[in-house]
Specification:
By secondary structure, this protein is of the alpha/beta class. The chain has helices at about 1-10, 25-35, 60-65, 85-90, 140-155, 160-185, 200-210, 225-240, 255-260, 280-295, and strands at about 20-25, 40-45, 70-75, 105, 195, 245, 265-270. It is globular.
Length: about 300
């Protein structure tokens, strides 16, 4: 009889989760939201850490995730402009449409770099009119994002405001405790020139004090032609640049060619937090720091 009772209990439907259902466009935002929200939220992401967040397939299952969401978190600054509107149309969820409390453009919490001072057009490549959207490469921006998310979570779920505020404070404390050691470890990067594949490292450069005089892409989002690659190789050699950075979702062939021809070291960085694997945003930054430290 006892075993029959346990079997029947196992077949009963589980009670519905009463917390906030959050969908983030990229893993870094999802990881921060999970740390802020804790047990009061469920979090999923649309892009994988192995995907270029500029280009995500607008698959029906992603629209389904959005259709059930209470909050949508996006990097903004046109990062997701090529695919997110299609998903929002398919989701038909008024809670997460632009202008609703559940639609959270997280760029509002930071000060963007590289804001164009001229009119932007497609001849310039994938230039973002509101500024560079890769702001989570600088961990100094993450606490402001966490506080902004806590405030919006509390707006949608007032009963758990204290928990959200505490989650944001704990996240900030952990990150700030680690940041001092990171900056000491990477102090030798200050003042150095570094080559990058895409124009995605200005925030990392601003934080650590290195400069990026050029990119392997001739313009953001434009694949490099052989003539441009030859120019890059010449410049890297003449300027004695010894480090090349690229996210691991970009093709390795051209960056490795430049490294082989110049003797520079190529570091392929994880494009985002592996939140599904249990990695936190702080742990992701720690991994990037360890890679950079190893290159020095």
């Amino acid at each position: 009889m006892r075993y029959l009772f346990l079997l029947l209990l196992a077949l009963l439907p589980l009670p519905a989760f009463a917390g906030l259902r959050i969908v983030a466009t990229v893993p870094d935002l999802g990881a921060i939201a999970k740390e802020v929200g804790g047990a009061n939220v469920t979090v999923s992401t649309l892009a994988l850490p192995t995907q270029d967040p500029h280009f995500v397939d607008a698959k029906p299952n992603l629209a389904l995730d959005l259709s059930r969401a209470d909050m949508l978190l996006l990097l903004g600054l046109d990062m997701e402009v090529g695919w997110l509107p299609t998903l929002l149309t398919g989701a038909r969820n008024t809670k997460v449409q632009p202008g609703s409390p559940g639609y959270v453009d997280c760029s509002q919490f930071v000060t963007p770099l590289e804001v164009p001072t001229q009119k932007v057009d497609r001849t310039m490549g994938d230039v973002h009119s509101g500024g560079n959207p890769h702001y989570l490469y600088d961990p100094r921006n993450a606490p402001a994002v966490a506080r902004g998310l806590a405030a919006r979570m509390a707006q949608l779920d007032p009963a758990n405001k204290a928990a959200y505020d505490a989650g944001a404070a704990a996240f900030t404390q952990r990150l700030d405790a680690a940041r001092g050691a990171w900056e000491t470890t990477l102090a030798p990067l200050r003042g150095r020139e570094v080559l990058t594949y895409h124009k995605s490292m200005p925030y990392l450069a601003n934080w650590l004090g290195f400069t990026v005089p050029m990119t392997i892409e001739p313009k953001p989002g434009i694949p490099p032609a052989p003539a441009h690659v030859a120019q890059v190789i010449g410049a890297v050699s003449s300027r004695k640049i010894t480090l090349i950075l690229s996210e691991d979702y970009y093709p390795a062939t051209t960056a490795q060619l430049v490294a082989d021809k110049t003797g520079a070291m190529l570091l392929r960085l994880a494009g985002g937090t592996n939140a599904k694997g249990g990695e936190t945003y702080t742990a992701h930054v720690e991994a990037v720091v360890k890679q950079l430290a190893g290159a020095m």
